[in-house]
């Protein structure tokens, strides 16, 4: 293995090539998303880039190929843990491809989303990774038609657009979570966080499908729509409403882990045992979910896979802007912890 560059010396593409045991051309191919590379070679080069903290010179890159070396990432709120964790993964994935990430938050406001997509992002970055909230569907496509910068959308709100899109199978994930609760013998399963427009809610569809397969008629009182960021206090307020019902739920599936934290806080304050009285499962699998008491079961999207897929689509489209838009579905898994354990 080659030795690292001298103290104070900025690593070069030659250093990366030496560390990975490949040519500088191969390193360049990895940075530019060349498709005809083995996984082994790509992984060695990306590891060398990370180890050496290599950054392509943006000025030189701009002179050579008209690229800036930046990817813009927009999220509704960086203070929401899921977006903070995802942003960290995207920064790492972009670094491995030689890009620096510029992060902005839109607060779900239409004007801020529009400005990011049509003005700030195209001026400052080679591509934009965007989580849409206010601008979706046809309105998103109309904006994108006037922008030459590659755009990759994240999340289920991006469905219905002819743009590159990275998403989790929310219907399948929600059905898996609901099936898990049904498998515990629960029959009064509430859903916290449904979209205000129930007709376009994939997780609601998965929840309903699981209940239908178990011959359970959904109780509309158990479906609680929540708009906005779906924070802990929203989950607490929804749980208070559910506990006031003549027959409260014996299980709760929450659209986010934050909603689940709030619901659990209210349940414990009311002397309900989790999971014996009420089982609780979230969605996002935040780092802290394994640390709270009781530890929260959750649907875990593969955040690293989301990050790599989004960055890969930016790099691929920079190499060939005439590609057809792709929807990339990222795997998820059910993480079972104490909040739905059978031996509690």
For the record, the CATH class of the domain at 170-301 and 334-340 is: Alpha Beta
Task: Report the CATH topology name of the domain at 170-301 and 334-340.
Answer: Rossmann fold
- Strand % is 15-25%
Mean pLDDT score, rounded?
Answer: 88
CATH homologous superfamily annotation of the domain at 170-301 and 334-340? Response regulator
| Separation, N- and C-terminal Cα atoms | 51 Å
Q: Which ranges are low-confidence, i.e. pLDDT below 50, for 5 or more consecutive residues?
A: none
How much is the radius of gyration in Å?
Answer: 23 Å
Number of strands: 12
* Annotated CATH architecture of the domain at 170-301 and 334-340: 3-Layer(aba) Sandwich
Strand order, sheet with most strands: 2-1-3-4-5-11
Total helices: the number is 12
Helix content: 40-55%
Order of helices and strands: HHHHEHEHEHEEHEHEHEHEEHEE
Largest beta-sheet characterization:
6 strands, parallel
Structural class: alpha/beta
Overall geometry: elongated
Keywords: DNA-binding, Transcription, Transcription regulation
GO molecular function: DNA-binding transcription factor activity; transcription cis-regulatory region binding
Pfam families: LacI (PF00356), Peripla_BP_3 (PF13377)
Domain HTH lacI-type: 11-65
